Amino acid sequence: MPQVIFIVLNSAVKQRTLCDLAEKLYLIKKHAVIYVADIREGEFYDKLLWTWKQSSFIPHKYMDALDEPQEEPIIITQKILHSENFDILVLAAPAPKEVTDLFPTIIDFADRSDQNQLLQSRERYKAYRSYQYELKDMQAGDFLTSGLS
């Protein structure tokens, strides 16, 4: 049964938090897939991970579809057909159940800075509960300093 960690965002900093998360996961030697809505968002995060922090390098790769094993620790994609060797799914965009079922750990975001985003987060939370996933809420700072359990 997958575990979903809901990162609570109290301001509109999802993109920055997602990059911090990617760095943290890389440093603790986790392999993660960042799920995006489309090519435009995938290319945005690809560029952002290359340029967001001068002092850090996060090996990653953007691909249209994850359909075979990959060596890069961080993959950005909007289609997942193969999840072998990946520990964590990070949701830049909502993913269907057939995707979330492929991963032992899912990181999603509850954006409290925007009412519409918050309502959508609550709907996803209810869906995860109906799938009988294990649910855990954390503040971004707590996750980044504590790690995965």
Structure, explained:
- The protein is an alpha/beta fold and 149 residues long.
- It is 36% helix and 23% strand.
- It has 5 helices and 7 strands; from the N terminus they run βαβαβββαβαβα.
- Helix 3 (97-100) links the parallel strand 5 (88-91) and strand 6 (105-111).
- The model has no long low-confidence stretch (mean pLDDT 90).
Strand content: 15-25%
Give the integer mean of the pLDDT values.
90
The portion of residues assigned to helices is 25-40%
- Principal-axes geometry comes out as globular
CATH topology: Rossmann fold
Uncertain runs are none
Provide the number of structural domains.
1
Distance between the termini: 15 Å
Structural class label:
alpha/beta
* Number of contiguous helices: 5
Tell me which CATH architecture applies here: 3-Layer(aba) Sandwich
> Could you give a short account of the major beta sheet?
7 strands, parallel
Q: What is the CATH class designation?
A: Alpha Beta
Helix and strand element order: EHEHEEEHEHEH
Q: How many DSSP E strands?
A: 7
- The main sheet orders its strands as 3-4-2-5-6-1-7
Report Rg: 14 Å
Query: Going by CATH, what is the homologous superfamily?
Result: DNA polymerase III subunit chi
